[in-house]
Amino acid sequence: MTLGIVAALHEEIADLLAEMAPGARVESIGMRDYHVGKLHGHDCVIVLARIGKVAAAATTTALIHRFDVDEIVFTGLAGGLAHGLSVGDVVIADTLVQHDMDASPLFPRYEIPLLGCATFGTAPALRDALVQAARDWLTDEMAAQVSSTWRDEWQTGTPRVHVGQIASGDRFVSSAQEVDRLRNALPEALAVEMEGAAVAQVCHEYGIPFAVMRTLSDAADDAAHVDFARFLREVASRYSHGILHRFLTAKAA
Ligand code: ADE
């Protein structure tokens, strides 16, 4: 059983790569490095996809074809869409939608032309295991691994885990106007990012179970680019490593 772990930016997987490094081998395909090795006794392939839906789709296809992965987890950051969510919360997708897909009037808005669907569901077992791992890590370990400067800033107590829809598109959403427009267009969406639904489409097409886990770095508003850059530098890797560590340890039990 081989797990593919994908992220868009190096900072999102730096700690996982460091942990796997001794004994791992690196294969370069299509301008990407695939790190093949073991994490907590599990066969894993970790890869940095880079940003956007095309990058994510190309990487996912290579993971399936060249590395024969059995399941895929995408980890990284997202902007919060739904009211009541806070920076530091984790969103785990139950469904994903490509918010910039619009072949109307030929096909309904958001529907992937000729595939006949607009949303993709994640694998319940993977999703549930990630939810448990995220809850456990936030409760037991996060405070020791994320600096108190951040935790003081959040002021909302322990960050929470949410399960719901994630919207993906080739835009970094960074204005109050755009975030409002997205909220109105996709009222079920909890978070916005730039890769998850592309991974979802490829996994759907190949019948590969997948899950998407995102930490909220910003509110997709006018300050999003500043909040995102700070969070990415200082916190992102702690979350990915901490939660996936719990996830893999529980899998081994
Ligand atoms: N990833 C993290 N924050 C984001 C945002 N505001 N828009 C798109 N992708 C993101």
Automatic annotation (TrEMBL):
Pfam families: PNP_UDP_1. Residues 2-248 form the Nucleoside phosphorylase domain. Keywords: Amino-acid biosynthesis, Glycosidase, Hydrolase, Methionine biosynthesis. Pathway: Amino-acid biosynthesis; L-methionine biosynthesis via salvage pathway; S-methyl-5-thio-alpha-D-ribose 1-phosphate from S-methyl-5'-thioadenosine (hydrolase route): step 1/2. InterPro entries: MTA_SAH_Nsdase, Nucleoside_phosphorylase_d, Nucleoside_phosphorylase_sf. It comes from the Bacteria. One of its GO terms (biological process) is L-methionine salvage from S-adenosylmethionine. GO terms for cellular component: cytosol. It is an enzyme of class 3 (hydrolase). One of its GO terms (molecular function) is adenosylhomocysteine nucleosidase activity. Its EC number is 3.2.2.9. PANTHER family: 5'-METHYLTHIOADENOSINE/S-ADENOSYLHOMOCYSTEINE NUCLEOSIDASE, 5'-METHYLTHIOADENOSINE_S-ADENOSYLHOMOCYSTEINE NUCLEOSIDASE. This is adenosylhomocysteine nucleosidase.
